[in-house]
Amino acid sequence: MIRAFLFSFQLHLCCNHSATATIITSEMPLMKIQFLALGIVFLAGLPSSADEIRVMTYNIYHGEGLDGKFNYSRTAAIIKAADPDFVALQEVDKKTMRAAGVDQPAELARLTGMHGIFGKQIDYSGGDYGQAILSKYPVKDSKIHWLPGMPERERRIAFEVTVQRNGRELKFVTTHLHHQSNTFREQQAAELNRIYADSKVPVILAGDLNAMPESQPIAIFKKAWSFGNSDTSLLTYPADKPVRQIDYILFRPMGQYRVKLQKVLEEPVASDHRPVMVELEEVAR
After folding, report:
1. Are 43 and 136 in contact (CB under 8 A)?
2. pTM of whole model > 0.85?
């Protein structure tokens, strides 16, 4: 006979979530052990462990795939399969005629089960056009930083959110630099360096920088940021047959995280870019 015992334990699922389970057994034959577990709930999509952050950046080409379809379930499935804590989305439509009036940030937030927030750049096609962020953590605050460029056509922005993670603040930023002018890209990179030079909290910057690894805009960023996807073989554009690396995930302070994983997801149809995924581990300080 097995001696009766009672014990409880905690399963730490993430920085802000824990589940307490109590297992109770009473005297019973060895071959017939029964147990009761109370309060254990395993939820897919909870934030990563305390010292790890999974980040994705994805230019979604206003929601339209290379097959001409606006398939939000497809895009959401790509995101959910990667299980990121944060997603930076570029080229996002909100209630435009081009996208049949769909609020893309809200729809992707609903389909992924994440918090979604939109940063508007311009009026477009009867609605709004800009960037968006998906987060497993509630957003405490958001801010748009206007970047140098061509405000009369498509004003470029850095869209920033602040979240609380492990009891500390973290800033997550999406951006999309100019697609034609290298001079503008250099100015935009320098401005982003300036904006976050005095940040008191860690910053993760992700987006479509429209710049190759050997370019001057990337050299400017490297003065102030560490790169999560430093492997120059991780090509992202065009999605069907990528030949260029122009999508990146950066962080500061430099050395704040150790890069555990960097990859490009093999998705050739859902957008004209492939998504980039990085897993970061916080370095003990």
Report:
1. no
2. no
